[in-house]
Design goal:
Elements (H helix, E strand, L loop, with lengths): L15 H4 L3 E2 L1 E6 L5 E6 L2 E5 L4 E6 L11 H9 L1 E6 L5 H6 L10 H5 L3 E3 L6 E3 L4 E12 L6 E12 L4 E2 L2 E2 L7 E3 L5 E3 L12
Antiparallel strand pairs: 1-13, 2-3, 2-6, 4-5, 5-10, 6-9, 7-8, 9-10, 11-12, 13-14
Length: 201
């Protein structure tokens, strides 16, 4: 099968998200200028550079009380900071609950019953029990083609790692089993890893 996105795919569901998988989930925490915390998961998320460490996530929809975007991007526009919390399999249900489309100012930490802790370098809450959290200062927000498509880039200025995830000097993802996003309503969990050496190693 071949199709041009502009012509449509003719399938019951859009296959694009199922093709580009698995995707890590960035559980983005922000705080608005009035002090309200916000927490929302984004599967268009990844690390993009080592030195300095940088990450990005993209928001692709809007809500009526935020104009052209959603709470996360709007808050970052105002404050210039955010935190990326890594999602483990054990947090799948509360993560999903925090994805609800709710009114501006609603605190998803409280809504989903998620314990929070204050970040060290930016004025934002983080998920207290997350395997890792990346404190970020926004470097740029790029408006992408299409309606309400924004990519947010940030420099990582502080990193939290849960002690039980550190094994022999390495951050061991099998200790917490990262949750990943697939297409449709599908998710996957990483339970096993293997090593490949590069040909020039």
């Amino acid at each position: 099968m071949f199709y041009r996105p502009e012509d449509g795919h003719g399938l019951a569901h859009n296959p694009f998200n199922a093709i580009v998988t698995p995707r890590p989930i960035g559980w983005i925490s922000t705080r608005d200028m009035d002090g309200h915390d916000n927490l929302a998961p984004y599967s268009f998320f990844n690390a993009v550079a080592y030195v300095p460490p940088q990450v990005m996530f993209a928001s692709t929809s809007s809500k009526a009380d935020r104009g052209d975007t959603k709470d996360s991007v709007s808050n970052i526009r105002e404050t210039g900071v955010f935190c990326v919390n890594i999602v483990e399999y054990a947090a799948r249900d509360v993560m999903n609950k925090s994805s609800a489309m709710v009114d501006r100012g609603t605190d998803e930490f409280t809504l989903a019953g998620i314990e929070r802790a204050e970040c060290e370098t930016v004025p934002v809450s983080r998920v207290a029990g997350a395997p890792a959290s990346l404190e970020c200062r926004m470097t740029q927000i790029i408006q992408l083609e299409g309606e309400s498509n924004f990519a947010v880039f940030g420099e990582v200025v502080g990193i939290h790692m849960r002690d039980d995830c550190l094994v022999d000097g390495r951050f061991d993802v099998t200790r917490f089993q990262p949750l990943t996003r697939l297409g449709y309503r599908d998710y996957a969990v990483i339970k096993e890893v293997f090593n490949l050496s590069r040909p020039d190693d």
